[in-house]
Design brief:
The complex is a heterodimer of chains A (268) and B (454). With 268 residues, chain A is mainly alpha-helical. Chain A has two domains: 1-112; 122-268, no CATH class. Chain A has helices at residues 4-25, 32-57, 65-87, 93-110, 123-158, 163-167, 171-204, 211-232, 238-262. Chain A is globular. With 454 residues, chain B is an alpha/beta fold. Chain B folds into three domains: 5-167 and 321-335, Beta Polymerase, domain 2 (2-Layer Sandwich); 171-299, NAD(P)-binding Rossmann-like Domain (Rossmann fold), CATH 3.40.50; 340-436, no CATH class. Chain B is built from 15 helices and ten strands. Chain B is elongated and about 120 Å long. The relative contact order of chain B is 0.09. Mean pLDDT of chain B is 85; it is low at 429-454. Classes of the chains: A mainly alpha (268), B alpha/beta (454).
Chain lengths: 268, 454
Amino acid sequence: MQIVLPLLAALVYAVSAALYLGVVLGERRAWSRPALITLGVGLAVHLAALGGWAWSDGVASLATIQRGLSLVAWVVGGGFVVAHAAYKLRSLGSFVLPLVVLLQALSVIAEPGFAVDRELQGPLLVIHIISALIGSGLFFLAALAAVAYLLQERALKRKRFGGLFERLPSVDVLDRLGYRLIAIGFPIYTGAIGLGSLWAWEHEGGATLELQYLFAVVSWLIYAALLQSRVTTGWRGRRAATLTLAGLVGTAAVLSTYALRAWGVDLG
Amino acid sequence: MHGMEYALFGVNHRTAPLAVRERLALNGPRLEAVLQRLRGQEAVEEAVILSTCNRVELYITAADRQAAWQATADALREICELGPGAEVDFERHLYKLWGVDAIGHLFRVASSLDSMVLGEPQILGQLKTAYAAAAEVGAVGPRLNRAMHRAFSAAKRVRTETQIGEGGISVAYVAAQLAERIFGSLKGRQVLLVGAGEMAELAARHLKDAGTTELTIANRSLERAQALADALQGVAHPLEELPHLLEVADIVITSTGSPRALLRRRHLQTIMRARKQRPIFLIDIAVPRDIEPGCGELDNVYLYDVDDLQQVVADNVAERRREAERAQRIVTEEVERFVQWIGEADVVPTVVALRERFHAVRAQEVERALRKLQHLDEHDRRVVEALANALTNKLLHPPSVALKRYAQEGAPPEALELVRDLFDLHLPQPSAEAPAEAPAAEGAPAPPAPRLRL
């Protein structure tokens, strides 16, 4: 049972992804509504799956890498639905859904190796990991908006418009969307890093300069600079999009270090 | 009276100059007069008249081509007051299409494939209005009813399955579309006109239609700026305030007659800093240009000059032409479906009558024979009946197949008449019956009700 709902969610997401790709690549505009509805169904199934895990194995089980990936997938998909309602971004689904499918599929594939560490029993670490995952999910979404921004901006600057240009949201909408996602994700991510440091202090007598800590701090600094400069000097547009992508490299590096450790790769 | 067919008499922007089209234009009372007049004519069964600035077309159904044309031409001549001699001239510009060709033309017109501006959306509405007007005076019967509704659904298919109506094809419209690509919704966006030329005014009007609310006009002559501001409900400023105005505007249209650039890259750099890099859309339609080309290299600045906009227009026109080919395939398909449907509607009653006739003869003859063969037992009697039945069906098979093929190819009326004549078939009301069954259901491609088992 533990794998049925997550697998079902992955399949429903795949259908939604196919519909969204049909909207953009196959010029089937009428498909965007079924795609969104399918995504909604997928999110509901997925939420039930997450709830089931929390019920049977405890909330801490969501902080394992296997189920953490699934949590990120849900945040990305759910965040997209909220953003869609606010900005009418039907075509961005073709960017977002493949990522959701990938994350969820990875989670399903990894599920057999699932085990809750004894370390995860304390609430501090669980909250640290879950908030880090939620923050990362929002940063993923911001990065997708940044990619769409860069494509749209390039088309407008080069004055050459292909089919994709017709369907992407405007540069201003994408720019604001990316900024808002980071503005929401940042405090969550900050809290996660703070709690992580606190846990490390308690258990290892001080913040260790482990690889993931380094990556986390670097990405945090990038996002902080991004938010700060937008308010003061107005760093927006292409620079902001590039910084968003750089920040994501850091965030993804943190996740990857954890994932590789969980699968037994020695990173020193 | 078999052989009722569709016909079209018309002039359009390609065949007739405006001077001819305006004389034939049928609006308001004249439209109704012609419709009423045609309704009273024996030679014309049904009529719908489409009259727009680019075309005047009369779609009718009639049995006799010559008589139908004569009646229509007489009505036009009288009501449009075309004096003697003038008719020769208008016939020179006129096209007459019959049957499938008339239907094909109707579907193309509805789908905007025959429009001067390919893919323009107004024509379908105009055709619907024309149809409603004709229906109101009772000039539309089942045949035109059916054809019109199928034309509407063909047009709808073209619009949803191709991009023929997308991509602006005027400079002003393209500018408004680009603005939406940059800002999304244009609601609340500020437009600044620098210079008060005609093109700038047109672009500003398009932007206003697209939703921009604030309009500022800066001009060397404050008087002219004020005049335009009054016309467009904007605010006029002297040109000296330009740097300040650029700090707040979102969309800027420049069209001054200045011999050198008004806005240089380094000025704009300062302005962008003051704007905190909020994006700005600069449209330079002045020749010589008002804005230094280097400005477009700055981040968050989108600069389009006349050539850029015209290039986008050219790309869009080319794209519409490509889409028109796809649209034409859809139209051809829809016309084929319609023709097949009409063909079946004509053929089906004939086949049914043929079968009924053969089987009536069979039943009669079998009964007579059995009366003389009283000594046969039940089994033998059944053998005789089966023999007669098999014989009849075998004989019916080839003509039924041939008639079905006619239906698919669009039945030649003469062939049907020959069959009826050979077998002495009397159809109560041939051909016009079937289309009457479901006149109002738009887009419902219902095949004729009595399906044949062949």
